[in-house]
TrEMBL record:
Biological classification of the source: Bacteria, Bacillati, Bacillota, Bacilli, Bacillales
Gene Ontology cellular component terms for the protein in this record: cytoplasm
Similarity section: Belongs to the SIMIBI class G3E GTPase family. ZNG1 subfamily.
UniProt domain CobW C-terminal: residue ranges: 217-293
The protein's name: GTP-binding protein
Key words, A-Z: Chaperone, Hydrolase, Nucleotide-binding
Catalyzed reactions per annotation: GTP + H2O = GDP + phosphate + H(+)
Keyword Hydrolase: yes
Molecular-function GO terms, alphabetical: hydrolase activity; nucleotide binding
UniProt xrefs under SMART domains: CobW_C (SM00833)
Top-rank taxon: Bacteria
CDD domains referenced in this protein's UniProt entry, alphabetically: CobW-like
InterPro entries recorded: CobW-likC_sf (IPR036627), CobW-like_C (IPR011629), CobW/HypB/UreG_nucleotide-bd (IPR003495), P-loop_NTPase (IPR027417), Zinc-reg_GTPase_activator (IPR051316)
Residues in coiled coil: none
């Protein structure tokens, strides 16, 4: 399994600086990183931050959350098949919503190969102080990127007074009291903090994880043991709390040879027949997904 980290944060907040700093530290430890950079526009300006030894894929046409997961799947496939690496760092555009970005990366096709460790959000502290002057949409995205983070880098504190730094840290903590907040200049984050991150639950870990572990956004991989009735499955989907944001994968349906491709977003269910026998697994993305009772399992796993 290769660990995956998603770097989120506003335009100019310090994501590329963070990426460069993380790469340097991983390499010093003998860990091989690979990078996917999602830039808006066609010029891969920031890729200069990544040296030639590090496998790099760029997604220059639009934001990963809008172009959909197929492009991301293609990049992941190419990296997994063609490159030798231990960890994957994905820098999202400043405009990416964290749930959509995580959704694009978490493909059931790679569920057994990639382990989503979580979202690191770089928050521009100077900009935070000025957030009341943002448009409502921009402000909302800024807050969502912080709310869903598993680790928050409160960056650019060199531009703040001590008192301002304290105020900003407390305000950010009030928005997300689960993620650790690290104050930095130039995104100088020690990588030892990444190692404790864990945003993915596999079936067998659900019970342990549920004890005393609180998470914002997380994902869960579930394997079905038997075929299900479509109507019962859809009834179960409707019964789920609205903190389940996305689901996708292959669901074995009674009376059909191959599991169906299943997608769920914004309360809508979509089914597509699959011509190959894909593994009967779904990925669930949301809050507290470890606590969900999943249809067909007969118990909470
Ligand atoms: N003063 C100050 N400047 C910083 C800090 N961190 C980053 N910068 C500067 O802010 C600018 C943007 O930094 P990047 O690391 O490129 O930020 P980014 O989030 O990748 O930016 P985009 O790719 O444009 O979204 C650069 O000019 C950095 O040198 C910091 O802690 N303090």
């Amino acid at each position: 399994m290769k660990d995956v980290y998603l770097l989120s944060g506003f335009l100019g907040s310090g994501k590329t600086s963070l990426l460069a700093h993380i790469i340097e530290q991983f390499k010093a430890e003998g860990i091989k990183p690979a990078v996917i950079m999602n830039e808006l526009g066609k010029l891969a300006f920031d890729s200069r931050a990544v040296d030639n030894e590090v496998p790099l894929k760029e997604m220059l046409e639009g934001c990963i959350c809008c172009t959909g997961s197929e492009k991301m799947e293609a990049q992941l496939q190419m990296l997994l098949e063609g490159e030798d690496f231990d960890v994957l760092l994905i820098e999202t555009t400043g405009a990416a919503h964290p749930v959509e970005a995580m959704d694009a990366v978490l493909s059931p096709l790679f569920a057994n190969k990639l382990n989503m460790k979580g979202i690191i959000t770089v928050a521009d502290c100077k900009r935070w102080l000025d957030r009341d002057n943002m448009t409502p949409q921009t402000r909302m995205l800024f807050l969502e990127q912080i709310k869903h983070a598993h680790l928050i880098v409160a960056n650019k504190i060199d531009l703040l007074t001590e008192e301002e730094t304290l105020t900003v840290t407390m305000q950010i903590q009030a928005l997300n009291d689960v993620a650790p907040i690290i104050q930095t200049s130039n995104s100088k984050l020690p990588i030892k903090l990444l190692k404790n991150m864990e945003a993915t639950f596999h079936d067998k870990e659900v019970h342990e994880a549920a004890i005393g572990k609180q998470l914002t956004l997380s994902s869960r991989l579930h394997t079905f043991q038997e075929g299900l009735h479509q109507e019962e499955f859809e009834e179960w989907v409707r019964s789920l709390p609205d903190t389940v944001y996305r689901m996708k994968g292959y669901v074995p349906l009674k009376g059909h040879k191959n599991p169906f491709l299943f997608q769920y977003a914004y309360g809508m269910v979509q089914w597509l027949p699959e011509y190959m026998k894909m593994p009967p697994q779904i990925v669930i993305i949301g809050e507290q997904v470890d606590k969900l009772e999943i249809i067909g399992s007969g118990r909470n796993d």
